[in-house]
Amino acid sequence: MTTTGAHQEAAGVTARGRWWWGRRRSAVLDVGLGAVSALECAVEGVGFADRAALPVPLGVLFGLVAGAALVVRRRWPVAVVLVSIAITPAEMGYLMGIVGLYTLAASEVPRRIIAVLAGMSLAAVLIVTFVRVRQDIGSADFDPGPWYVLLMAVILALGMNAPPVLFGLYIGARRRLLESLRERADSLEQELSLLADRAEQRAQMARTEERTRIAREMHDVVAHRVSLMVVHAAALQAVALKDPHKAAKNAALVGDMGRQALTELREMLGVLRAADPAPVRGPAPRAAVERVAAVAAAAPAAEAEGAGSAGVGSGAGPDGDREDGPCLDAVVELVEQSRQAGMVVELRVMGEARQCGAAVERTAYRVVQEGLTNVHKHAAGAKVVVRLAYRDGEVAMQVENGPADGRTADAGLPSGGNGLVGMRERVTALGGVFVAGPTDEGGFKVSAVLPVPAA
């Protein structure tokens, strides 16, 4: 329970209960002040009884009852001030008047009522003091002038009324300020709790997103090479006895691809460890994922500097260079690797090659790569056409294969079911359009269109 809630609950119990004190020490203080005020008024009641020609016990009893009214100052401050004003002509209740005015000014009573009652108390004390001082001067055969009597009356009246009223106003304002600050602190605490919950949700979503991105990068890097290795291994098994020279060539290709896949895996794992040396909560650093993408670009295509002459755009884009990840100029080498694995694949480039930005070129490369990998897995021996088109404000790519050649043995590659999902996520994240599905000829087609950001 918050502080404000406890305060409000205590106030509610007080209002509904028999007594009106929120704390025991408040009750002790008020009872003590009431006792002192009753004693004061009882002593002053003796003089009042003499001046009014009343019995002394009656004057003392009147003083006790009137002074004891100070006990209820917290519950009925207006009544206490009215009682003090009423007994002012009897020259009693000075403590009640001071404490009552302070309590009234510090309470939640409207300011207009406080001003009226304070003015009434000031006028009563001023009149009584003026008359008393004038009587004292007359009985002492001393005449300092009318100004002296008025000055003394004003000083005494202001001294008895102004300090408690001003101090009560200050205490009341301070109390209201503290309550306001307490309520604001409770409100901020609730808002911070909500923000913390939302931040935790966003962090969980970010962690999930980063894990998905890392898994997608791992899939893109490993699946294609491993698929080619399996295809070459199947070809090696088929020609091992018939053509030892070709078998040796295929074995060398399998070894090269295996070493490249292991190197890329080792580099990616090293980057992930270096990016987060200590276990911390939160999503994987974005720099680590970007580095994973950069490692994925470390393919044999990096050595083919003449690939750009085949009509594919340079990988250096406005927001990154070749080292940031695979680019469109590596598509030529990617297609050549599939040809070496026995696939009949044709690359068609339409439009004028240009820089499309690192993110767009990486995504376009991954779409082509995943399309070729799916052909190796599910359509052994099928003919493939890879189309790459540069248009105004966008770049389009398509991997289309015909039906599988029944005479070609299936490599038996397993499918993780994440290839098309990963491609769709990549394309839609950049605001592009992704379509995949079977063709009328019995093959399969993967198409994507990516917007090219302005340079």
From TrEMBL:
Coiled-coil regions, chain positions: 171-209
Cited Gene3D superfamilies: 1.20.5.1930, Histidine kinase-like ATPase, C-terminal domain
Protein name, UniProt field: histidine kinase
Residues passing through the membrane, by range: 52-72, 78-101, 113-133, 145-172
Swiss-Prot/TrEMBL keywords: ATP-binding, Coiled coil, Kinase, Membrane, Nucleotide-binding, Phosphoprotein, Transferase, Transmembrane, Transmembrane helix, Two-component regulatory system
InterPro entries from the UniProt entry: HATPase_C_sf, Sensor_HK_TwoCompSys, Sig_transdc_His_kin_sub3_dim/P
Positions of the UniProt region annotated as Disordered: 306-326
Catalytic activity: ATP + protein L-histidine = ADP + protein N-phospho-L-histidine
Naturally occurring in which organism (per UniProt): Streptomyces lavendofoliae
Domain of life: Bacteria
Annotated GO CC locations: membrane
Domain Signal transduction histidine kinase subgroup 3 dimerisation and phosphoacceptor: residue ranges: 210-275
GO molecular function, one term: protein dimerization activity
